[in-house]
């Protein structure tokens, strides 16, 4: 299927590795010009070279999206942004009674406010051009909260609420806003989680992997390419009537009806 994205400019946040990298690769395959970012210059260069194999222009920006300076650098990298994918690493698990005010502020800055501030910068231009696609990479725990991930869940839920409200305002100008909710996608972050489960449980990593697979009805982890392709579809010409939605990429793990 031709997604109608060739020649569009896509800004994908936190895209030197992991899910952001998978999304950037998917847009490059569709013929987009891609702006990527990361904080490690060597990793970012490698990501640029890998993504560029698919064709199109790849613009790497060394930036931290959680900072005003980082966001300004990203916005300066391309004159117009047709597609925005917000993304950032989440805070580590912990105990609610050990999270002080600074921990909460840092989580909100990284996983709610950074995305909102980027969205509000690109939306006016998208509306004027009558095309825009915004996808927020959040988390399956937005719909299935677990207390040890409270910092991440609360901040991403706030972003989800803002995105839903704004989606109703801008859809008349062919601007859509949706969220992708990943669960157990085979990335380096997942490998780190498996290793942590093994250490804490006193088991080997094969057993830890099996334990993490247990709640996934598909019987396997998701692939980054599956995730990236889902993101590309939500940004396609064909998805213009899909907005304000939360698409779970989870192998059937979510047990709820809605």
N-end to C-end Cα span: 29 Å
Spatial strand arrangement across the major sheet: 3-2-1-4-5-6-7
Oligomer class: single chain
Total DSSP helices: 8
Q: DSSP strand (E) fraction?
A: 5-15%
The 3D shape can be described as: globular
Could you describe the 3D structure shown?
This protein is of the alpha/beta class and about 260 residues long. It has 2 domains: about 10-185 and about 225-250, Rossmann fold (3-Layer(aba) Sandwich); about 185-220, no CATH class. It has 8 helices and 7 strands, in the order E-H-E-H-E-H-E-H-E-H-E-H-H-H-E. The model has no long low-confidence stretch (mean pLDDT about 95).
Give descriptors for this structure:
258 residues, alpha/beta, Rossmann fold, globular
In short:
This protein has helices at residues 18-29, 41-52, 68-76, 101-129, 150-170, 188-201, 205-213, 224-234; strands at residues 9-12, 33-38, 58-62, 83-86, 132-137, 175-182, 246-249. By secondary structure, it is α/β, with parallel strands linked by helices.
Write the layout of secondary structure elements.
Layout: E1 9-12, H1 18-29, E2 33-38, H2 41-52, E3 58-62, H3 68-76, E4 83-86, H4 101-129, E5 132-137, H5 150-170, E6 175-182, H6 188-201, H7 205-213, H8 224-234, E7 246-249
Parallel strand pairs: 1-2, 1-4, 2-3, 4-5, 5-6, 6-7
Helix pairs in contact: 1-2, 1-8, 4-5, 6-7
């Amino acid at each position: 299927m031709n997604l109608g994205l060739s020649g569009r400019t896509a800004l994908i946040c936190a895209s030197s590795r992991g899910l952001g990298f998978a999304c950037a690769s998917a847009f490059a395959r569709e013929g987009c010009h891609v702006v990527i970012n990361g904080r490690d210059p060597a990793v970012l260069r490698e990501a640029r070279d890998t993504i560029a194999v698919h064709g199109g222009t790849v613009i790497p920006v060394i930036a931290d999206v959680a900072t005003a300076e980082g966001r300004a650098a990203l916005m300066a990298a391309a004159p117009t942004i047709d597609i925005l994918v917000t993304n950032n690493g989440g805070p580590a698990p912990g105990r609610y009674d050990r999270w002080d005010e600074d921990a909460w502020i840092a989580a909100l800055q990284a996983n709610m406010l950074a995305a909102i501030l980027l969205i509000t910068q690109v939306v006016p231009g998208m509306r004027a051009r009558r095309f825009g696609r915004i996808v927020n990479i959040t988390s399956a725990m937005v719909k299935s909260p677990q207390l040890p991930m409270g910092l991440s869940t609360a901040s991403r839920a706030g972003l989800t609420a803002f995105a839903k409200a704004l989606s109703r305002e801008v859809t008349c100008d062919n601007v859509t806003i949706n969220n992708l909710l990943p669960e157990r996608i085979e990335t380096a972050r997942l490998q780190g989680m498996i290793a942590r489960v093994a250490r804490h449980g006193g088991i080997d990593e094969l057993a830890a992997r099996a334990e993490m697979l247990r709640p996934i009805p598909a019987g396997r982890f998701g692939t980054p390419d599956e995730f990236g392709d889902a993101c590309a579809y939500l940004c396609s010409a064909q998805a213009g009537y899909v907005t304000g939605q939360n698409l779970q990429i989870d192998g059937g793990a979510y047990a709820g009806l809605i």
